[in-house]
């Protein structure tokens, strides 16, 4: 709900320039970068459910304070609070890996992206509608209420996946610290994290400037409420593409091409989508770019997360997913910090840069195909089910 309207809210209500607006994303992901690994490790040691509930409450509080903000300082403070507690996606992914066998892990992580896609379909569209009808602050209060609903759902519907014995063992395991030397020596893990970092760097270019880009490039000269609604609809197209990808495409493509094949296809689609954004001036073609980008994201991220858990011990799943999340957050931190400056040069410049960087990711993807532990997951032609 807040994704399409927060940049325009900051611009219209507080007079922030693009360079400052993109720093709102930077502050969120910087906080998430610092807190993510700790939340993942805390969930390994103390259980998934308590950490989920704490992080969801933090999200609800942050949305309420955005709606009540009377200054830019309050906006930034609220985004930082949400970033610190925004590890609920990390813990949710760890929860899924706890209850899923290795061969089903990519598919199951894909389901998270599928329901995330549903949220992107409903959320941006609803945020745009609420802002256009009731004013710019109502969507944030509504979002806070929805976040509190997730607290109740977690409390009443989910069972803890880690036994007391597992949590005690994880607290005692020294290797659960995942020190930098261990990470650097794990070359396949470094390659996977590098792909995730650069992919999200390109994504950050789009995420932090998309509403501003749409205002001047796709909807020039239209009134504020129409722009809010149009941006919401375009982002709903992202959610639709993600839902279709996870529901209908991920499973058959995974069986046929394997995890690394999905990463390859997704990278190409994401690069093409960024290129399309850079050249189009029509909202309809912008929607096509949104669908391609969503499909690329949906094909790339679940297998990358699954591959990350493959190259470390099982008792490190929560921690390594936290590091994966922090790596992607770092990519977004750096890109959003400079995206406003690049946007000020030319509205399409972030998309040209994002497309170039995404296509360069094909190099480490081809390297991973040669790693034995990963290559054995690539289906052989005589074993593919059609």
Give a structural overview.
With 386 residues, the protein is mainly α. It has one domain: Growth Hormone, Chain: A. 82% of the residues lie in helices and 0% in strands. It contains 16 helices and no strands. Helix 2 runs antiparallel to helix 3, helix 3 packs antiparallel against helix 4 and helix 3 runs antiparallel to helix 7. The mean pLDDT is 84.
**CATH architecture annotation:** Up-down Bundle
Tell me the overall shape: globular
Task: Outline the low-pLDDT stretches.
Answer: none
Spell the H/E element sequence.
HHHHHHHHHHHHHHHH
Average pLDDT, to the nearest integer? 84
Task: State the CATH topology.
Answer: Growth Hormone, Chain: A
The percentage of residues in β strands lies in under 5%
CATH superfamily: MFS general substrate transporter like domains
Question: Quick recap of the structure?
Answer:
With 386 residues, this protein is mostly helical.
Quickly list its features.
about 375 residues; mainly alpha; Growth Hormone, Chain: A
Write the layout of secondary structure elements.
Elements (H helix, E strand, L loop, with lengths): L5 H9 L3 H29 L1 H21 L3 H13 L3 H11 L6 H30 L3 H20 L6 H9 L7 H6 L1 H32 L5 H56 L3 H28 L6 H29 L3 H12 L1 H7 L3 H4 L11
Helix pairs in contact: 2-3, 2-4, 2-5, 2-10, 2-13, 3-4, 3-5, 3-7, 5-6, 5-13, 6-11, 6-12, 10-11, 10-12, 10-13, 10-14, 10-15, 11-12, 11-14, 11-15
């Amino acid at each position: 709900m807040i994704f399409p309207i927060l940049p325009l809210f900051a611009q219209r209500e507080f007079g922030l320039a693009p360079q400052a607006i993109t720093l709102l994303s930077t502050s969120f992901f910087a906080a998430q970068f610092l807190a993510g690994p700790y939340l993942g490790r805390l969930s390994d040691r103390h259980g998934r459910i308590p950490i989920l509930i704490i992080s969801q409450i933090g999200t609800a509080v942050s949305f309420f304070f955005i709606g009540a903000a009377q200054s830019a300082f309050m906006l930034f403070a609220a985004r930082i609070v949400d970033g610190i507690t925004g590890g609920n996606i990390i813990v949710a992914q760890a929860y899924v890996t706890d209850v899923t066998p290795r061969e089903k892990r990519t598919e199951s992580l894909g389901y998270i992206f599928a329901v995330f896609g549903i949220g992107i379909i409903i959320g941006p569209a609803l945020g745009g509608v609420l802002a256009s009808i009731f004013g710019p602050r109502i969507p944030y209060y509504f979002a806070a209420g929805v976040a509190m609903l997730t607290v109740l759902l977690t409390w009443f519907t989910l069972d803890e996946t880690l036994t007391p014995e597992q949590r005690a063992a994880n607290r005692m395991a020294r290797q659960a610290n995942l020190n930098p030397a261990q990470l650097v020596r794990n070359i396949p893990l470094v390659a996977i994290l590098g792909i995730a970092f650069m992919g999200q760097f390109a994504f950050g270019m789009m995420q932090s400037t998309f509403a501003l880009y749409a205002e001047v490039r796709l909807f020039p000269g239209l009134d504020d409420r129409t722009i809010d609604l149009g941006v919401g609809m375009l982002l709903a197209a992202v959610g639709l593409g993600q839902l279709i990808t996870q529901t209908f495409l991920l499973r058959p493509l995974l069986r046929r091409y394997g995890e690394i094949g999905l990463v390859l296809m997704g990278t190409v689609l994401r690069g093409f989508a960024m290129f399309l954004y850079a050249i189009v001036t029509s909202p309809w073609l912008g929607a096509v770019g949104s669908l391609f980008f969503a499909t690329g994201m949906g094909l790339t991220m679940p297998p990358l997360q699954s591959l990350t858990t493959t190259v470390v011990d099982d008792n490190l799943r929560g921690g390594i997913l936290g590091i994966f999340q922090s790596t992607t957050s770092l990519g977004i931190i750096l890109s959003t910090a400079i995206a406003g400056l690049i946007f000020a040069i030319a509205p399409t410049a972030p998309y040209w840069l994002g497309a170039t960087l995404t296509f360069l990711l094909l190099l480490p993807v081809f390297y991973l195909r040669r790693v034995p532990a990963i290559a054995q997951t690539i289906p052989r032609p005589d074993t593919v089910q059609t």
